[in-house]
What does this fold into?
Amino acid sequence: MDRDEARPATRAVHAGERQDVPRQGVAVPIHQTAPFRFASADELGRAMGSPGQEGIYSRNANPSVRVVEEKVAALEGARDARAFASGMAAISAVLSTLVRSGDRILSSADVYGGTGAWLSWLERRQPEVAIERSSLADLPERLEGGPPQGIRVVFLETPANPLLTCCDLPRIAAACRRHGSTLVVDNTFATPILQRPLELGADVVVHSATKFLGGHSDVTAGVVAGDGETMEALDETRRLTGGVLDPHAAFLLARGMKTLELRIRRQSENAARLAALLADHPAVERLSYPGRDPIGRAQMSAGGGMVSIVVRGGWPAAARVMDRLEIFAIIPSLGGVESGISSPPITSHRHLTPDERAALGIDDGLLRLSVGIEDGDDLAADLERALEGL
It folds into this structure.
């Protein structure tokens, strides 16, 4: 079956794995090697001159890593993809590849704390690359207000971390096309099962594959997907900076992705149920869930597995909830099959001052729930017990 004809669940299982070899292994082989052996000097010379430089040295390319890249490209509807050692390696590589001296990056302020910190780091060390920030809510009007001079890249997350804000991707993409800006979208929270930014007008998609794509909290990885020209430019960046994904990590990621569609559907069902429970809970001051956001409902086929709440009583109340939970584990990450809870003010956004966090809407009582695949009744009961008495 042609890649574009298969549905997402089929692509997640089979993309990148069919090879014309006799008695091919069902599992993805782990090519755990740094260099590859050559039969002759001529063969080595021809390989070194090939565009992708596959089968030479694993910092350039590796067959196990290639399986992951083809899976993500198939799921996102991209021409190709490149895998990296972490989500931050993927984000920093693609932004470094796309911008030049004198360019500007327009980023939504509503981004993962590590991404925001990297942009600030770039701003301090590369002053010739200017960074401009806008709230996700104001970003469409900012782009439509007039040609943004010198803005080479627009970067955003939707749903955004940690408040799960969603933005109108087709509207933003149309403005970027008019101005000649490249739109890069972090699709980590939605995954290509629920949202395909390239089909909505984005140019490049990035993932922290550590999260939902891997799904088992046992691998650190990142992926970039997009057009062939950008991916070829990324080859040089990855080769020179050394941020390639390890073959064994690629095996774990490819294995995890086979159940991506099943996991995301179950996590979305559980999260929607918990969002309904928490929406009217007296201990909850504010709830954020993409399934209750008009833009989120329009762009995503389901609400996803993330729920954010602000509990009444600030940090003392938030800490009490975290400590009383039994099934939800305290985890400074997300996207695994196990349910987890985290406090962004003391984890991903702790590098910001209290005033900076307040400006972004990150209250001291903010809790981010990563909903897993456990029984929904058990998860609801666990949360109700933890919130009781607040």
In short: Residues 140 and 172 are 5 Å apart (CA to CA).
